[in-house]
Every structure is written in C-alpha cells, then in structure tokens.
Amino acid sequence: MTYIGTKEASFILGICSQRVRDLLREGRIKGGYKDQRGFWRIPVYGKEEMPIIIEGKRGPKGVWCHRRRKTPTKIHVNQSLIKANAKRIKNDPLMTSDQLMPVVALKQTNRNDMGYQMILEGRCRIVYKPYEPLPCGAHLWIETYEPVEFVDTQFNPVTARRPYKYVS
C-alpha cells in the first residue's frame, strides 16, 4: 500500500490542503490516519492511485477530482487583462496595485483561477503553439504536472486576488 501526505493529496484531488485535512478530521478519506509524529498518512487505491473520499450526506457535491488528471496544469498571463489594467492606470494614476485585476491564469481540468504571483516547484516547460492555441486563445503558456500554489494564499482562489505584500 502506498501512502501520501496532505500536500500530495491536495494536488491529486485538485483541492486545497486545508480541505483535505478537514475531510480527514471528519473521517471522510478512506484509510487516512495520523502517524506517531502527527502527520496525516493517506492511502492511494487502484490503478490511478487516488485517495477514496466518502461522499457527505448533506450539502453540495464535492468539487475534487475523481480520477487522476491526464493533462498538465497550464499557467499563462492574460494579455487582455494587462491591457485593461494599463488603461485603468492611465485613467486613474492614483490606483493602487490591489485595485488591479489579477492577470496570471492557472488552468487545471475544469478550474480557472486567477492570481498575481504563483510558485512553481519541480519540472515545468514553456510551450509556444501559434497554430494550436488554448481554448482561451493563449499561444504561450507553462505546463507542469507538479503542484502550483499562489504566493500568498496557499491556493485559495478567493484571496488570490490580493497582491503579495513584501514584508520588510
């Protein structure tokens, strides 16, 4: 049996690691337990090596991935939003950076999250396909199978709209 941690499980399932820990506390991830050091251990099952999540009895259906993703995560910079931000700055020079629209798009299967800065760990590649653009129209993007997280939000799309604040 292969075991993974919460960070790996959150990447495989396409949800944040805090949500994975909440599901573990509720006993909704099959076979998940805490080891002697206090770290969660999550078994993976089947050919696709996915954790099994037990459906809840109330509320909306879960938004996690039910099978391992075959396509890589794609990251690109939205050129039209950069131009829109430039117009807004030109019309209102006193505009602050947190009033600008985020321009970095993170695309994973059925999700499209926007942010200002992201961390890429591990291997990735830059792809330029002028004759085969993405459905959004992007000709140049970054692809990776590794976890990607927003700098200041731990992959929380709601607060990813806030720019990273440098602490001095």
What characteristics describe this protein?
single chain, 168 residues, alpha+beta, 5-stranded antiparallel β-sheet, 3-stranded antiparallel β-sheet, elongated, disordered C terminus
What would a concise description of this structure say?
The protein is of the alpha+beta class and 168 residues long.
Describe this structure in words.
There is one protein chain. By secondary structure, this protein is an alpha+beta fold. It contains three helices and ten strands. The chain has a five-stranded antiparallel beta sheet, with no helix packed on it. Helix 1 packs across helix 2 (17-25).
The quaternary organization reads as single chain
What gap, in angstroms, lies between the N and C termini?
46 Å
Return the average pLDDT rounded to an integer.
79
Counting DSSP H or I runs of 4 or more residues, the number of helices is 3
Instruction: Indicate the proportion of strand residues.
Output: 15-25%
Strand order of the largest sheet: 6-5-4-9-8
Major sheet summary line: 5 strands, antiparallel
Number of strands: 10
The 3D shape can be described as: elongated
| Helix content, binned percent | 10-25%
